[in-house]
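Case study 2.
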Amino acid sequence: MKDILDSFGAATFGELYADEYDERHNPGTTDAAVKLLCELAENRRTLELAIGTGRVAIPMANAGIDIQGIDGSAEMLTKLREKPGGETIKTEIADMADFQLKDSFGFVFLIFNTFYNLTSQQAQVNCIQQAAAHLEPGGQLLLEMFVPQPSLWDSEIRLREMDMNALVIEGANHDPVKQTVEFQRAVLKEGSVTMRPLAMRYAWPAEIDLMAQMAGLSLESRWSGWDRSPFSGESKMHISLYSKSST
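Prediction:
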């Protein structure tokens, strides 16, 4: 049987989740994220990695930001173009760990834990190196992701949702050495069962800092929220801002 990790490529997430993405993957932080991202991107050509359905890119474009994006999934980009304003944003189907664009950018960002969709350390290293290569001198890279809590994945089966019409259960296979987690979610609804697999590789903040350093970037700021709240040992997520030398 083929492992979930081995089955996931750049387009897999969109193939599985594009139809329900906006409905089921809303972090509730969009307005705050757009506000800070617009402040950082102001007057700079901006690139969003894994632009998806345009949750933040469309309001940023509406605010006057010169933004474009890449995504590995044609399905996700179709959803973006169906939204008002989405058709005006320049997009390209590309793997965020292996892309080459003609433009350079003053600001690049990747948010909502999507960095962890790269399921190997080498792919994550490649992603940051590619982002850095597309940054102009003095440009910045922003990453948003949760701080790993491996104990959350030690239980074998969890009940995720239940109502009168549906039952959702989830299993996780955690490899603490590779820092990978394979999820399989079973949705039982209206007499049918739908499988929703997901694979990820988590990384610690210090590990990501080292990846950035290898790409010629230095950590400028780290916050625990879009309101720029200080990062601490109690933080559940981090927003990390890296800078490329201006020389």
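The chain has a mean pLDDT of 94.
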